[in-house]
Design goal:
The complex is a heterodimer of chains A (75) and B (385).
Chain A lengths: L4 E9 L3 E6 L2 E6 L11 E5 L2 E5 L2 H15 L5
Chain B lengths: L9 H14 L6 E7 H9 L2 H4 L4 E8 L7 H11 L4 E6 L13 H6 L3 E5 L2 H10 L4 E8 L4 H13 L5 E7 L2 H10 L1 H5 L7 E5 H7 L5 H7 L3 E4 L3 H17 L4 E3 L11 H10 E9 L3 E10 L8 H4 L15 H5 L31 H9 L10 H4 L2
Parallel strand pairs in B: 1-2, 1-7, 3-4, 3-5, 5-6, 7-8, 8-9
Antiparallel strand pairs in B: 10-11
Classes of the chains: A alpha+beta (75), B alpha/beta (385).
The structure holds iron/sulfur cluster.
Iron/sulfur cluster binds next to α15 of chain B.
């Protein structure tokens, strides 16, 4: 029950709410725990609240590290 | 789906597993505990254990808030829900958790109690607003991930002047429990297991950050890698742990850099600190009393604390004597060691909480692994070394 999922913010709504989508399904969720969320951002969603923003650069870096480890690199 | 699919590449996972095999020292074993049920679920679902060398073993930890909830607290919630004025709102995971004598919230609902399954605290607030004649109690449960939503809901209820909203608080704390696994005399008595490192849950750390584990890594000399829940996240974390063990390091490392920082979410932490305070002791199923293992509402919110408001009594209730949930939650046994597993106890007829929640070790084994549970087992006796 502690699982959270990455969703994309599609529209900012009043009262710190936003419309977000995951796999084509949209939900109205709360952004009250985050600052400066922009349309297009990906956030980690848990029980209706966004808990963290996903940093696209760090996500790419993680994948690069994983690929490097897979071929036997130092990552 | 972005940020999901790319972390599920099976070919890469196999390559990394091979890499782990290449660097793991064949003369020793690596016993790694994934604390969180979400990781247990991912490990079972993607068959990650089958990819690992036989001397790298995963031990399933107690990190599922539903699994560690003592039966007495379910009994108390059922008793509360049976009162005519009460509307109990709960996350779906709790509905089928067995209470004493075969009871559950689901059965209480069938018997006429007003129990509503909600996805979010936002739904519970909406019910309280729309139905002012109901006393809406939110059955709050979960780790640090789930606590900020409860705090915000309570503050929103107060701001909206909803006098009919209260909280039955069962929020538990991750670092306290990990510490307890290593040092509690109770756990030692019941058979301690050698643990060489921990995988920490990334979603909890989106809120609390990686910092709270620093003390722990230092004090106990155990490496901790905070990791995401996709299969590549988990297997990369295992590689990082094996590396640390090989190097004799015990650091806190962050695998989930895409959303976790050292300090976490300051805003969420501030909301939680405003509404909750740690309780000196809280009973965890399987771990016993965990010092500072849970949160309670601060005194100024006492009016919204369902336990006080409705003078709830938490009975001392015993687990089904055949159920090994306690030992499983401590990592001492595996689901297949339980006599009831897959016979009397299945997800349709759960005897213990580990079979109810999809993140429970028993449910994960049943769903994904019961026919190939032949990988070498962590033998509690042998592992005590
Ligand atoms: S199989 Fe069922 S009875 Fe056995 S430990 Fe798991 S939940 Fe408890």
């Amino acid at each position: 029950m502690c699982l959270a999922a990455p969703v994309q913010v599609k529209e900012l709504l009043p009262d710190n709410m936003a419309k977000a989508t995951i796999g084509g399904v949209s939900k109205i969720v709360s952004m009250a725990l985050l600052d400066d969320v922009k349309v297009g951002d990906y956030v980690v969603l848990h029980v209706g609240y966004a808990l963290a923003k996903i940093d696209p650069e760090e996500a790419e870096r993680t994948l690069a590290l994983i690929r490097e480890a897979a071929i036997g690199g130092a990552a | 789906m972005k940020y999901i699919d790319e972390y599920r590449d099976g070919r890469l996972a196999k390559d990394i597993a091979r890499r782990i095999g290449a660097i793991a020292d064949p003369t020793r074993s690596y016993q790694l505990m994934e604390f969180c049920g979400g990781h247990t679920h991912a490990i079972s679902r993607y068959g990650l254990e089958d990819l690992l060398p036989t001397n790298v073993r995963m031990i399933h930890g107690p990190g599922c808030p539903v699994c560690v909830l003592p039966i007495g607290r379910i009994d108390a919630a059922i008793a509360l829900a049976m009162r005519p004025e009460i509307t109990l709102c709960t996350y779906g995971d709790l509905m089928r958790v067995p209470g004493s004598n075969g009871s559950s919230l689901l059965k209480a609902k069938a018997a006429g109690a007003d129990i509503r399954m909600v996805y979010s605290t936002l739904d519970a607030l909406r019910i309280a607003e729309a139905e002012p004649e109901c006393e809406v109690v939110f059955f709050a449960i979960g780790f640090e991930t789930t606590t900020p939503p409860t705090a915000l809901a309570l503050k929103a209820a107060i701001a909206k002047g909803l006098g009919n909203f209260s909280i039955f608080c069962n929020h538990v704390l991750t670092p306290a429990a990990i510490q307890n696994i290593l040092e509690s005399p109770d756990v030692r008595k019941l058979g301690a297991i050698k643990i060489d490192g921990f995988i920490g849950p990334a979603h909890v750390s989106t809120v609390i950050g990686t910092e709270p584990y620093e003390f722990f890594a230092e004090e106990f000399g155990k490496p901790v890698v905070v990791a995401g829940f996709e299969p590549l996240d988990v297997i990369q974390a295992i590689l990082m742990l094996v590396r640390q063990v090989n190097d004799g390091r015990h650091e806190v490392e962050n695998q989930y850099i895409r959303a976790v920082t050292a300090i976490g979410n300051e805003k969420a932490k501030a909301e939680v600190a405003e509404v909750f305070e740690p309780c000196e002791s809280f009973e965890w199923r399987g771990l016993g009393e965990v010092p500072y293992g849970a949160l309670r509402l601060r005194a100024q919110y006492a009016a919204y604390d369902a336990e006080r408001r409705f003078s709830m009594v938490i009975p001392a209730a015993k687990d089904n004597p055949g159920c090994e949930c306690g030992a499983i939650l401590r990592g001492v046994k595996k689901p297949a060691d339980c006599k009831l597993f897959g016979t009397v106890c299945t997800p349709d007829t759960p005897m213990g909480s580990c079979m109810v929640s999809s993140e429970g070790a028993c449910a994960a084994y049943w769903t994904y692994g019961r026919f190939r549970e032949k990988a070498p087992q962590v033998d509690a006796g042998r592992a005590v070394a």
